[in-house]
Write a structure and sequence with these properties.
The protein is mainly β. 7% of the residues lie in helices and 40% in strands. The chain contains three helices and twelve strands. 20% of the residues are buried.
């Protein structure tokens, strides 16, 4: 069985448990995905299952992309690879739907975080800021000194400074699947997941679950 699939974040809502407790959930449109290639150790050096997501018109793809997807029987926009217990069990053209997961299961979800643009050190790295008194009129959100004197006489690589924030791949681990609506290809996951609405997500079996 393949360990994951692709989906898109639809938004957040809340559901009630049998005890009457309210639980915040993220609604994910998961699949249907189609198997586009099966990687095997003998040919590729590793084993995995490549799946595609979101049907697309032929004019949106290049000729090589169309040729690659010829055996799958459908043209898709997004391709990703996932590990599997036994990749040989899958064949090109197989469809993977939301029933890959069950309620109560733990999953890891990856996506691109919201881009925040150019941000200062207080917002980007949670710096405390400078003193608010004693004549400091313009140091409230400044980074302060970035050097360390004569030794080393330079700025360390990786120094936390102002810069572009967000828009990077983020993974949230051990999220609980609250409910799976197989007829609508929807998965309800407890808590929040990275990215904005309609953002692409990779949903995988939890590695620490």
């Amino acid at each position: 069985m393949v360990h994951g699939m692709l989906g898109r974040k639809l938004g957040m809502m809340q559901v009630f448990t049998e005890k009457g407790e309210v639980v915040p959930v993220t609604v994910i449109s998961a699949g249907p995905c189609v198997v586009t290639q099966v990687r095997v150790v003998e040919r590729d050096g590793y084993s995995a299952v490549q799946i595609g997501y979101e049907q697309v018109a032929a004019r949106k793809l290049t000729k090589p992309q169309q040729g690659h997807l010829k055996g799958a029987g459908t043209l898709v926009r997004v391709l990703r690879e996932f590990s599997a217990d036994n990749p040989q069990e899958h064949s090109v053209g197989d469809v993977i739907s939301a029933d890959l997961f069950q309620a109560g299961q733990k999953v890891d979800i990856s996506g691109n975080s919201k881009g925040r643009g150019f941000a200062g050190v207080v917002k980007r790295h949670h710096f405390r800021g400078g003193p608010k008194t004693h004549g400091q009129s313009d140091r409230h959100r400044a980074a302060g000194s970035i050097g360390a004197g004569t030794t080393p006489g330079r700025v360390w690589k990786g120094q936390k400074m102002a810069g572009r924030m967000g828009g990077k791949r983020v993974t949230v681990q051990n999220l609980e699947v609250v409910e799976v609506l197989t007829d609508k290809n929807l998965i309800l996951v407890k808590g929040s997941v990275p990215g904005a609405r309609n953002g692409l997500l990779q949903i995988r079996r939890a590695v620490k679950g």
